[in-house]
Design brief:
mainly beta; seven-stranded mixed sheet; 9 strands
């Protein structure tokens, strides 16, 4: 289980915390070199990132049970600086209601500061930001995980 915690420096941004499962899949050799700030195996990367929030708060807004899926591609080493940037799309769980959509967008776009703000600096082009059905399944023994999105 991964946990991201952030105490906002800007008083207009609520404190937030998410913990749950994070998975990625890409075309690189196992283990993905990007996880260790290295260049992709074949000099380019096409990946799927999935976050399943088991427990989460954005101020007073609960994010428990929501999912986020990201698609990305880039050439070169994004961790080395320079001109290498990710072309990405983000998909948010359509189950989000009331204040949850705004909270998810603030956190995962990097606008709520913290780790995701640093991660967002790696994005050169955001080709989409949509709400859609996201199904997420993980085996109790962690032997497999599945995710799917569909256009509603």
């Amino acid at each position: 289980m991964h946990q991201i915690l952030w105490k906002a420096a800007d008083n207009n941004i609520p404190n937030w915390k998410v913990s749950g499962d994070f998975f990625d899949a890409c075309k690189c050799d196992m283990l993905c070199p990007c996880e260790f700030a290295q260049a992709p195996t074949y000099d380019d990367c096409e990946s799927v990132l999935v976050w399943h929030i088991q427990k989460g708060q954005y101020g007073e807004t609960s994010l428990d049970g929501l999912n986020v899926l990201g698609l990305g591609s880039f050439t070169g080493n994004i961790w080395a600086g320079g001109n290498t940037k990710v072309t990405a799309a983000l998909f948010f769980d359509e189950k989000a209601s009331q204040w949850q959509p705004e909270a998810l967008q603030m956190i995962f776009s990097g606008k709520a500061d913290g780790f995701m703000a640093e991660f967002a600096k790696l994005i050169g082009e955001l080709r989409g930001l949509e709400f859609t059905p996201i199904k997420f399944e993980i085996a109790d023994d962690l032997s497999y995980w599945r995710k799917s999105i569909s256009k509603g």
